Amino acid sequence: MSIQEVSTEQATEMITCVIDGFEITVPKGTLVIRAAEKLGIQIPRFCDHPLLEPAGACRQCLVDIEINGRAFPKPQASCTIPVENGMIVKTQLTSPVADKAQKGIMELLLINHPLDCPVCDKGGECPLQNQAMSTGRSESRFEGIKRTFEKPVAISSQVLLDRERCVLCARCTRFSEQIAGDPFITLNERGALQQVGIYEDEPFDSYYSGNTVQICPVGALTGTSYRFRARPFDLVSTKSACEHCASGCDMRTDVRRGKTLRRLAGDDTDVNEEWNCDKGRWAFKYEVAKNRITVPMIRDENGQLQEASWPEALAAAAAGLKHVKAGVLVGGRATIEDAYGYSKFARITLGTNNIDFRARTSSSEELDFLASTPLTATYKDIDRADHVVLINFEPEDESPIVFLRIYKQVHKRAIKVTSIAPFASRGTKKLNANLVKAAAGNEISAITELNELSSKSVVLIGERLAETPGALFAITQLIAKSGAKLGWIPRRAGERGAIMAGAASNILPGNRLVTDNSARVDIATVWSSDSLPSDPGLNTNEIINSSLDAVLIGGVDPMDISADAKIKLSKKFIVSLEIRQSDITDIANVVLPVAAVVEKSGSFMDWQGKVRSFEAAVEQSLNRSDVRILSMLADEIGKPINLPTVKAAKSEFDSIGNWDGSKVAMKSVSNEPRKTVGNDEAVLNSWRNLLDKGSLQDGEDNLAGTARKSVVVISPDRAAKLGVKEDQLVRVSNDYGAITLPCKVLDIEESSVWLPRNSVSSQLIRNLGVVSNSIVKVAKA
Amino acid sequence: MADEIMPKSDEFGLAKADQSKAPITNHNSSSFGKQLLGFWVTFKTMFKKVNTVQYPEVKEPTAERFHGRHQLNRHPDGLEKCIGCELCAWACPADAIYVEGADNKEGEQFSPGERYGKVYQINYLRCIFCGLCIEACPTRALTMTNEYELADDTRAKLIFEKDDLLGPLRAGMVPPPHPMYPNTDDGNYYRGEVTGSHPSQGIAKND
């Protein structure tokens, strides 16, 4: 049992001790170094990290300790010793012995440390540099030859290791083992030759490797993409939010002369603690991609897009949207303010409820579920849970910080985890989860058979559950029966916020139902409108298949929805608000450029409903958020929405508040009959890997280097039947197309075959036209 | 009284003269000799060595340690000494220096070691020629020349790029990028153990 564990569980018992002559009372189990911090006494340290288990590896924090008159014979590491009653601690400030010991350790650490601060990325923000100034000698007494290693060694495509600089604090190895559960990095050898290394046959392809760079107290681990790009004093740091998934990480964006150079994990104990994933850290070059759109464009008579002025483009867009039947596709990445702008624009300016935020496979059952079901789970609930159930949700790939949170409890308390999935992914194995195998479409029986759930249990479902008709209804019944906390975790950052902002056909802002009269009156009052449309609007699929004349689109990839979405949309008048050239640009009649996340302010709502606001990180940005463009467009059409700034949208949205009216119970949905699969057939299943062909990861080659290899997962039986061995090619096909990839033989549900949804040479909608719950042929290639 | 020059006030510390109100006149016959004496000074100067320098045709050498335009130096084999560490920019009190570092590619080095200065700019509209950047430079890449003719007609021209600042390629130097001298590391370069280029590094300049 670790010392930190004690501190959380028995927090009530208090201990009084004396540090440097000052008395302090702290909870039992508090480490001496932490108690000293509370008094404002800074003890130098390298290996100590509040979120990692104590190691006592660097010995820099030595202090003199005496308990009840009996002194330790030698100075002790204050990062490994918890305080006790009657303990008298003397730090370097009052004890010459401790001071001398610390200076000696510093001299020892610097003996083999190279003098390459001028070329080191850590220079200027380096704990070793700082503490060498506070605790070290000004002149070196060392006259020998420093130990040298080859430098730098790439331990993955995105992390470089310089072993000469390492002070063997074991922060990186402890992080990998205790926080990420990927022990691909470890300390090798002994004595002067001890060094950080990776296993030869297993590359360091952790999704969380960037954190080791951030917590390295020297420049031993550096990121490839930030290598030699800037010094800390060049950078302007802004607090920001991560736009990559619904985990909701606090972030810091560092900008040099208008260019984002790096993003670091921020510190939010309620969400990401001090960690983030590699996608959030290293995928930001999309905003400076070559195909960035900077000026408005209008399609001319010859079908060519021509650059235009803003007034021209707005007039053209207004002409196309005025007096016609129109719909709005918001996309899953809008900020709350932008989603609110789309919601108001649809209702006031276009006079319709044809609006949907879901640019993915979706169902109307899902909208009904989201409008009727309270989502109650939070990260804190995971911390307290006795049992976490994951249904069609792969936390490591689809919401990596949720994975870290569950893993923390698995590592600490060995809590029970159950996963309903076709096979045990790497993440599921790390969580030591109890796997309930289910083919796509057959999850319902597994859901109804779940028992042993209590009010302390947490059920986390992914957006993919909407792909199985009736599954979401089964979830509401499961929650009603067990009283467990429910979390719906979409992949994209804007989806939960879009629901709150009413960017869906059946919901108005603040979770109000379109069908409810008093709810409509509420919103109509705020919007100073006589009435709002009351008919149920069209959802994403219906908008695409409908005979609507025009569609307003905000950053949607039609290939996320269906294979024929682009062709169907091309028959309509399209106004597109986007940051880069896309498939929608090809068919748009008017293109209006908008700001990327680092250039605008706004807020995202994470999966637990927590709002994180951020300001524009790039100086002198126009903050051209979607909502400002929509407001101008609404003025042009003549039905203004009066949201000229992000701030105005935020304050109006905040003034609306949540609905206190009663919710309508979810309508029951009938299950699909089980699919029968032939001998050479299988039920397709898939999810998106964290690092894949997502458009926000474009241009990040170093990041792509650690993406997991695309494989077809088949069962041992099927492999035997097909006569293929691991890594041999297997062809998965249907009437639409085919994918041929090396296979991986795993204990997957017998009738299933799994492919990554949007990875290299496996883009399912493009290649097969379907993503899951569909029969495909499997053959040896 | 028109020729009388009245001391104006005690503005110039002439309070005493002011009090006496004594007129200073120049029509005294004995003052002619004094005038001649005055012209004698002028006359004598005609035979002295002239102090005027016919600038810009003639240029006087500056003091040896005059702080003039900067120069980015090279190692004897042509590699740049600058490693792009930005310590000069950090030391600059006028914020006149802008540096961006970059990664040296194996075999296509600009400087010895891992890092080189990809962008190097000094803004001479800002520079105050204090020389703190030279003190900060860990590789002696940045030094100051005695050149002082820095006037120009646009602001843009006064922002000197790396190409403007780099020292010339002398005989025996190979223009970078090229590999490091065989079997050496950056330490050998800093200790001055590389004294020229090696044929494997490329064709050296020969004049």
Automatic annotation (TrEMBL), chain A:
Domain 4Fe-4S His(Cys)3-ligated-type, chain residue ranges per copy: 97-136
Cofactor: [4Fe-4S] cluster; [2Fe-2S] cluster
InterPro entries: 2Fe-2S_ferredoxin-like_sf, 2Fe-2S_ferredoxin-type, Asp_de-COase-like_dom_sf, MoPterin_dinucl-bd_dom, Mopterin_OxRdtase, Mopterin_OxRdtase_4Fe-4S_dom, NADH_UbQ_OxRdtase_75kDa_su_CS, NADH_UbQ_OxRdtase_ferredoxin
Pfam families in the record: Fer2_4, Fer4_Nqo3, Molybdop_Fe4S4, Molybdopterin, Molydop_binding, NADH-G_4Fe-4S_3
Keyword Isomerase: no
Keywords: 2Fe-2S, 4Fe-4S, Iron, Iron-sulfur, Metal-binding, NAD, Quinone, Translocase
All copies of domain 4Fe-4S Mo/W bis-MGD-type, residue ranges: 235-291
Annotated ranges, domain 2Fe-2S ferredoxin-type: 13-95
Single GO biological process annotation from the record: ATP synthesis coupled electron transport
SUPFAM superfamilies for this protein: 2Fe-2S ferredoxin-like, 4Fe-4S ferredoxins, ADC-like, Formate dehydrogenase/DMSO reductase, domains 1-3
Keyword Transcription regulation attributed: no
Cellular-component GO terms for this entry: membrane
Molecular function per GO: 2 iron, 2 sulfur cluster binding; 4 iron, 4 sulfur cluster binding; metal ion binding; molybdopterin cofactor binding; NADH dehydrogenase (ubiquinone) activity; NADH dehydrogenase activity; quinone binding
Family, as annotated: Belongs to the complex I 75 kDa subunit family.
NCBIfam families with a match to the protein in the record: NuoG (TIGR01973), PRK07860.1 (NF005895)
Listed name of the protein: Unannotated protein
Species this protein is from: freshwater metagenome
Lineage, opening ranks: unclassified sequences, metagenomes, ecological metagenomes
TrEMBL record, chain B:
Domain 4Fe-4S ferredoxin-type: 72-102, 118-147
Keyword Translocase tagged: yes
KW Lipid biosynthesis (keyword) present: no
Molecular functions (GO terms): 4 iron, 4 sulfur cluster binding; metal ion binding; NADH dehydrogenase activity; quinone binding
Entry GO terms, CC: membrane
Cofactor(s) it depends on: [4Fe-4S] cluster
GO biological process: aerobic respiration
UniProt keyword annotations, A-Z: 4Fe-4S, Cell membrane, Iron, Iron-sulfur, Membrane, Metal-binding, NAD, Quinone, Repeat, Translocase
Pfam families: Fer4_7
SUPFAM superfamilies in the record: 4Fe-4S ferredoxins (SSF54862)
Family: Belongs to the complex I 23 kDa subunit family.
HAMAP family (UniProt xref): NDH1_NuoI
PANTHER family registered for this protein in UniProt: NADH DEHYDROGENASE [UBIQUINONE] IRON-SULFUR PROTEIN 8, MITOCHONDRIAL, NADH DEHYDROGENASE UBIQUINONE IRON-SULFUR PROTEIN 8, MITOCHONDRIAL
Identification of the protein by name: Unannotated protein
Organism encoding this protein: freshwater metagenome
Lineage summary: unclassified sequences, metagenomes, ecological metagenomes
